[in-house]
Amino acid sequence: MTKNQHLPLQRLALVAALLTGLASAGCASHPTNAQIGTGVGAVAGGAVGHVLFGGPVGTIGGAAAGALIGNEVGKNQRRR
Fold it and tell me: Contact 42/66 with Cβ under 8 angstroms?
């Protein structure tokens, strides 16, 4: 197999690992608004970073920035 043929397998493994982590974290307790904001911000920021800058650096940078912003927004939300 060439290097490019391994790429879909690597992505599949990464997605499976992320889903497993999210599923196991969901069993712990009710998340706070800050935790929810961090998760949502990281996902949204990673997607925006990937679209704007491309590559892993843009994705990771966007996810980090989104997590920070989401955490702050979540802290300021009232629990319903």
Answer: yes
Q: What is the DSSP code string of 18-77?
A: HHHHHHHHTTT-PPPHHHHHHHHHHHHHHHHHHHHH-HHHHHHHHHHHHHHHHHHHHHTS
Distance CA 71, CA 40 (A): 9
The whole-chain average pLDDT of the chain stands at 81
Residue 58 CA to residue 65 CA, distance in Å, equals 10
* Global pTM value: 0.62
CA 39, CA 55: separation in Å to the nearest integer? Answer: 21
Start-to-end CA distance of the chain, whole Å, equals: 53
